[in-house]
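Quick one, tokens below:
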């Protein structure tokens, strides 16, 4: 009887050990999967070699972009936006997506509202979005358009490989409807801009940058052959991109937009929009870039000492509304 009990206990111990090993192995698989998902999402440069190489499975970014877009066809156009504002000095187009309703509202209530505090800020802001994925999305963006009349909807899907077409249609819209406005500002929908500072800067530099994009320049940026921003060598064989502007915000003399659009007939297509518009097309259009904006940009975060000193915050990482109020107080448009 004793030997039988020992055998059962021995069997149970072995079974428990096997079970523990199984649990540990399962946890290992889960942790490994989560780690790889994080790698795919965050994509730290030092670990790019672990990501799938797009040269082994070539991307169809350019073909996909050409297939999905009807150039110049707007689903919502706001063709008279600039005509209804004849004294504009800046027309700003903001890259957005239909689902980013809160970001657009926050933009309207912060830097896009500067003209309500200072009459010298004569800026009109529109939001560029793509085609709706559902009937509900279309209803949302149509209602928003009827309320604010600042939505421009292109006939493309908002995906990574169609970013350049969003940018091209933005430039087409500006060139078609706002060519009389001296300056064009491009911005993402999560940036914060001291538009009072920007207006003063452009007013005092009217003739200095007529043939240059004023921006934060990236130089010697390596072409990614893996990950989210993967571009296969068949589409862009060079190891480094030409100098180009960081996509958070940049500004240029409005007529330059037409020059960039003309260059599309001779320049090779690239779906990475910042590089394509301000790097490749600028090169072919012989449009220069000025790194002047770099001294006025904080790429991440925002602090009190920035107010009045910096112009653009790419990723404020905190409430833009609260910082906008602080900026208004700093510039004495509001009493604390």
């Amino acid at each position: 009887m004793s030997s039988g009990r020992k055998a059962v206990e021995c069997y149970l111990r072995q079974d428990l050990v096997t079970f523990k090993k199984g649990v540990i192995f399962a946890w290992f698989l889960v942790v490994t999967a989560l780690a790889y998902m994080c790698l795919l999402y965050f994509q730290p440069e030092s670990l790019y070699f672990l990501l799938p190489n797009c040269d082994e499975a070539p991307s169809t970014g350019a073909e996909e972009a050409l297939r999905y877009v009807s150039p110049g066809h707007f689903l919502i156009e706001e063709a008279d936006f600039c005509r209804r504002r004849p004294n504009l000095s800046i027309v700003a187009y903001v890259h957005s997506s239909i689902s980013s309703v809160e970001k657009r509202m926050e933009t309207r209530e912060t830097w896009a509202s500067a003209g309500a505090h200072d009459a010298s800020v004569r800026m009109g802001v529109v939001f560029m979005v793509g085609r709706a994925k559902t009937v509900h999305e279309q209803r949302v963006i149509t209602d928003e358009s009827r309320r604010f009349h600042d939505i421009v909807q292109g006939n493309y899907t908002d995906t990574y490989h169609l970013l350049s077409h969003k940018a091209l249609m933005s430039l087409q819209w500006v060139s078609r409807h706002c060519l009389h406005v001296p300056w064009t500002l491009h911005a993402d929908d999560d940036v914060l801009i001291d538009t009072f500072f920007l207006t003063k800067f452009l007013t005092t530099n009217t003739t200095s940058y007529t043939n240059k994009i004023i921006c934060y320049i990236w130089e010697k940026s390596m072409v990614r052959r893996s990950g989210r921003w993967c571009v296969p060598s068949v589409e862009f064989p060079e190891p480094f991109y030409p100098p180009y502007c960081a996509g958070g915000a940049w500004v240029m003399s409005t007529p330059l937009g037409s020059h960039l659009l003309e260059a599309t007939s001779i320049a090779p297509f690239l779906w990475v929009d910042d590089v394509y518009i301000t790097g490749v097309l600028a090169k072919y259009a012989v449009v220069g870039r000025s790194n002047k904006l770099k001294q006025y940009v904080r790429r991440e975060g925002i602090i009190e000492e920035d107010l009045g000193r910096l112009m653009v915050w790419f990723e404020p990482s905190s409430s833009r509304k609260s910082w906008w109020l602080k900026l208004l107080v700093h510039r004495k448009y509001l009493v604390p």
